[in-house]
Design goal:
Blueprint: E1 4-9, H1 16-31, E2 38-44, E3 50-51, E4 57-58, E5 62-63, E6 72-75, H2 81-84, H3 88-100, E7 103-107, H4 110-116, E8 124-125, H5 132-138, E9 143-144, E10 150-152, E11 156-159, H6 164-177, H7 179-189
Parallel strand pairs: 1-2, 1-6, 2-5, 6-7, 7-11, 8-9
Antiparallel strand pairs: 3-4, 10-11
Helix pairs in contact: 1-6, 1-7, 6-7
Length: 198
């Protein structure tokens, strides 16, 4: 497999583990055997620090204007989604980027961002258990599987809340590189990966 660019969207009040868990999972998978299979990076609307949930300041690597082509886009959630869904610039960037990627992923209520962008139309999805009604409001034509940790539509894959982002990422690693690669990644991270999630 050729190296893939994995863009992770970040915004103010993003849930920390929603983006950091997948970042670590994909980066760790790319380090196995010095394979350099994944180039993982964060992207925000503007080239300035982002204040994640609970006051963690992060410096996105790219902004919308200079981000490289993404093969995979991951949209995390967090309290910031309540404002993000009314940010036309961000929603339009997600829409346009989604058209070009091989895989479109969401964690937690990042699914609400995908729903607002019209990217879950007539698909199945999951989200944080407390955000099911919000997702239903923005994506009425989406079948919500609220008890599922991961829902795979083929090109669009959604994960449940917070820690589910790690499982989602390792699931994608398994899908791209095989189960053994995902298991090796989990071992490297000392993460207790349940076999049914890959």
């Amino acid at each position: 497999m050729n190296s893939k660019n994995i863009a992770i969207l970040v915004f103010d009040d993003v849930e920390i583990l929603d983006f950091a868990g997948p970042y670590e999972s994909f980066a760790a998978a790319g380090r196995i055997d010095n394979s350099n299979l994944f180039n993982v990076y964060t992207v925000s609307e503007k080239p300035k620090p982002i204040m994640a949930r609970d006051g963690l300041s992060i410096n996105p690597r790219y902004s919308f204007s200079d981000a490289p082509h993404a093969d995979i886009l991951l949209v995390p959630g967090g309290p910031g989604t309540e404002k993000v869904i009314f940010n036309d610039t961000l929603i339009n960037w997600v829409k346009s980027t989604a058209r070009e990627v091989e895989l479109l992923l969401s964690v937690c209520d990042g699914a609400i961002v995908l729903g607002k962008a019209g990217l879950l139309e007539n698909l199945s999805a999951t989200t944080h258990h407390l955000d099911v009604e919000r997702l239903r409001e923005v994506a009425p034509n989406t079948l919500i599987k609220k008890t599922e940790r991961i829902v795979d539509n083929g090109r669009v894959i959604t994960g449940g809340g917070v820690s589910a982002g790690i499982d989602l990422s390792l699931y994608v690693v398994s899908k791209l590189l095989g189960k053994e690669w995902a298991v090796k990644t989990a071992r490297m991270m000392e993460y207790d990966l349940k076999p049914e999630w890959i």
